[in-house]
Amino acid sequence: MTQQTNQRMWCLMPSPSPYINTDLQEAITRSETARRIVAGFSATMPTLDDIWRHLDGALNDVLALSAEVTRLAGELEAARLDRANLLAAVRATIAADADGERDPLSYLQDELDAPQSAPHSRTGRRA
Fold this sequence. Notes:
Elements: H1 3-12, H2 24-44, H3 49-98, H4 106-113
Helix pairs in contact: 1-3, 2-3, 3-4
């Protein structure tokens, strides 16, 4: 599978996050329509081949940027989940300490030992 095809498949996946305000699927569809229009013009006006190649390259950037936005939104969602889980563990630790539990830090330790949310762990490496 080529990188371009791989990018297109990645872009066509539904948005993993409600944090993306732009309709990426709509942008991809418009880009693909524009690519077909450019291909048609290119076939009928080959003297402007350099211009058509430039436009085609710019339209390819939409696919790459859509994939990057989708990937980053997924990372943001995972980071927010990790933060929420850590905050809950901190609160449980504080409450356990206030209640006089023998090992209040166990709540925090359990969270730190738990597998992290995909796609990245807190260390920045793939989970």
